[in-house]
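Newbie here. two chains, one complex. Structure please?
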Amino acid sequence: MEVRALLAAPAPIARAADPDAELVAAARAEPRAFLGLYDRYFERVLGYARLRIRAAAVCEDVTSQVFTNALAQIGRFRGDGTFAAWLFGITRNAVRDVQRQPASEPLADQVAITPAPESGPAERFLECERSERLHAVIKLLQPEQQHLLALRYGAELGFDEIGAMVGAAPGTVRVRMHRILEELRRRYPHEDA
Amino acid sequence: MKTPDDSKLWLLERDLKQLAEPRVTDEVLRLAVRAELEKRLQPRRLRSRLRLRIAFGAAAVVAVAATALVALIGTGGSGGPSAADAAILDHALRAVTLPANMILHEKVVLVGAATPFMGEWWQETSPPYAGRWTKGQPGHLGEGSDNGTTSFSYDPSTNTISQQPDSAPPTFTDPLSQIRQELNDGRAHRVGTAVINGASLYKIDLPNGLVGYFDKTNYRPLYLDDPQRDGSVVRLKVVDLRYLPMTPANQQLLSIAAQHPSARLDTNPGGAPAGK
């Protein structure tokens, strides 16, 4: 598998300094400083969950669970990789645990999409329908592909940041992402195009 | 020039970003989860009342918080508000109602929390709702802006502004959007007055625990309290709330480039796929 090879490959780039190192050190000395890391990563973790999970309430619970677990385990974080890599590892596991549970269809009002308030009923319906189709095709991807996709479009991480997480050059991640998009596009023909 | 393939990829990327787009209720969720984390950071004897609440999960906590915000506007009892209260509530609604073609400047800070948090917004009150904001911890503020078609973020460590096309037109969302929306429902109920920092304020006490305080002279919201079960209070303080005229100088406040004129502009952050 290409993604597995990508993840297993030694980092061809020098490891960048962890931008969160200062806050992590503070949090290990004084746990209350963890809230600074929470503020920094809340939106990204929630975005990651929203890209992989359709039900809004489940996304919120996953986000809560991720930070609860991270707070409990921050003392075990050794700094071998970046804090972001560690945190999104926890996020990935939390999503996996949710997806392993017996499927239950979310109610319409639980679907993880909030159309713009000014949208008309028809537009809202189309947006919900589009969201549902897109989530369905994302679930057809390999878990590793879903992870990379969520890091990029959910957590809005750059290729360099993702590369630092998975030990690959940004260009390698970029190529891999392009292939994932092509695969998605084949399964998700866009009516606007 | 974009090929049809490029166009399809761009549409796909737009839809992917839309899945993860922030929602207006995210700030409520953020505060709710934050409050739970703070409780976990407290000594065990103070946490005994917390366990049941945690067991409900974040979604339930957010639902409670959202309900509380809605209840801010509730009738508060069997009868509607008195005539005097109705007049006060009408003034409060006017104070938060957005005048057209102005720029809203709003600054809020979280007080009473272990880690300080602050946010500041400048946003057009009419389409295209261009705006700029900073938020985060003092010393670690993130900064972004949107001009209606393109979003920007500023990285102070590299003095770089990254730009990306919007996946959807921006809407007006500030920290008080929820209160504004619910006040507009016309079901608020004033329950009394309170003195904070020497100032006498109108107080709206909510059944689910949130408390809003409004200035008696201009009726603007000054504080929103979230009392915790251990007796502590997480308070959102509205430091500034004003409407600025759309002058050229004020319009500069909406532009991240105008605030950082020496910054480098990155039009392809992260090296997005260029297509075939």
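Moderator note: Residues 34-52 of chain A form the longest helix (19 residues). The CA atoms of residues 11 and 167 of chain A lie 4 Å apart. Thread marked as resolved.
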